[in-house]
């Protein structure tokens, strides 16, 4: 197989379903695409019903090309990340990995158009992030939750509005930015630097005002990122955590107990925003981003320094600050449900605390004049929440 033939296959896969987000090549399965969160097989003209180990390996080698760094990474560590451009059609972030002695490939389709914050229809409070001059901003969520898209929109806003030098460290480069008001240099792991900590050290000597670190993978990267924030840089990065509270705990967990007190103090001073994301199914097809947004305040700084306590959990702090634009996942889920963007089941599945969200849905339905309020459903949810809290309810009343 040559690259023109591979390009034809990729093009056919992209056109096989609407809103294709991922392309998969796995042994003993046909080529597959993910559309609206579901995997679907693709029938090609070559009538490939099941891929062989040889076919997946050839596809992988064509995608990796002659980049020795990625080939060595694949052989030594069992996987590698790279990028591929289907000229005039799409750009992909690729992970090639070995499994059971064979090679599999997953391609994530990247948007060729860099979205703006307005395009993403995020809450207005998000526009405060590009205005920050120093500090640490973290965008968190599971794989495929849109973290890179959010950061690309933030970088685009800075690029458009501020005459500063921006350096990005990515694995791989996903959105290619052009120079506007700002000057932007994008560096790719494996091609331009060998690891995030070394790339970040080098970035401090490149006179940037804004640094994007693709991912906080280890303690060394976190320490250098905090140092960069402390010396007057705005540092943006991602973490694979599910909410703001877990983000703080995950960072602290990277360090030894004797180091954590100092890290708590530095993190409390430097952390500006934590934005956590969950992509959920939208009514009528497509996906919608639920956000949890936590900024910096005296209460958050105290909880970072001293730890969470009764009445001082990050969830409660965010909940109390909702009039200022902060929001929990529960607030976002109820807001999306009230607007008809997501269903009741989706809101309950992706929220943080089901009991309050179920009661909120009940109130929304009552305000609409919907008399069919799910009493049994609410009773069951309250019982489940009570069990989760290790309490045995003597009686559960539903008004």
What does this structure look like?
By secondary structure, the protein is of the alpha/beta class. It has 15 helices and 13 strands. The longest helix has 15 residues, at 147-161. The protein is globular, with a radius of gyration of 23 Å. The relative contact order is 0.08.
List the helices and strands and how they pair.
Layout lengths: L2 H14 L3 E6 L6 E4 L2 E4 L11 H12 L3 H10 L1 E8 L3 E10 L2 E9 L6 H4 L14 E7 L5 H15 L3 E6 L12 E6 L7 H8 L6 E4 L5 H12 L3 E6 L4 H10 L3 H14 E11 L5 E8 L3 H9 L7 H7 L8 H10 L5 H7 L3 H14 L7 H14 L11
Parallel strand pairs: 7-11, 7-12, 8-9, 8-10, 10-11
Antiparallel strand pairs: 1-2, 1-6, 2-3, 4-5, 5-6, 12-13
Q: How many helices does DSSP assign?
A: 15
Q: Give the strand order, joined by hyphens, for the main sheet.
A: 9-8-10-11-7-12-13
Helix content: 40-55%
Low-confidence sequence ranges: 391-399
Biggest beta-sheet profile: 7 strands, mixed
Q: Please give the radius of gyration in angstroms.
A: 23 Å
The dominant shape is globular
Chain oligomer state: single chain
Question: How much strand content do the residues show?
Answer: 15-25%
Number of strands: 13
Mean pLDDT: 90
* Class by alpha and beta content: alpha/beta
Q: How far apart, in Å, are the first and last alpha carbons? A: 67 Å
Secondary-structure element series: HEEEHHEEEHEHEEHEHEHHEEHHHHHH
